[in-house]
Amino acid sequence: MIQGAIESNIYVLIDWHSHTLKLDAAKVFFTEMAQKYGKNPHIIYELYNEPVKDTWQQVKDYSIELIKTIRAIDPDNVILVGSPHWDQDIHLVADDPIQGFNNIMYTCHFYAGTHGKFLRDRCDYAIGKGIPVFISESAGMEASGNGPINYTEWQNWIDWCSANDVSLISWSVSDKNETCSMLKTTASSEGNWKEEDLKESGIKTRELLRKQAEKEK
Question: Which overall architecture, per CATH, does domain 2-171 show?
Answer without folding.
Answer: Alpha-Beta Barrel (3.20)
